[in-house]
Amino acid sequence: MARLTPDNRPHALLFDSGVGGLSVSAEVRKRMPDLAQSYLADDAFRPYGEKSEKQLRARLPGLLAPVVDMLRPDVVVIACNTASTTALPSIRAVLDVPVVGVVPAIKPAAKLSRTKTIAVLGTPGTVRRAYVDELIDRFADGCLVRLAGSVALVEEAEAKLSGRAVDLDRLRAEIAPIFDGRDGADVDAVVLACTHFPLLVDELRSVTRQSVAWIDSGEAIARRVESLLPDEGRGEPPARATAFSIGGTADAARREAFQLSGFEAFVTL
Ligand code: DGL
Question: What's the gap in Å between 50 CA and the centre of ligand 1?
Answer without folding.
Answer: 9
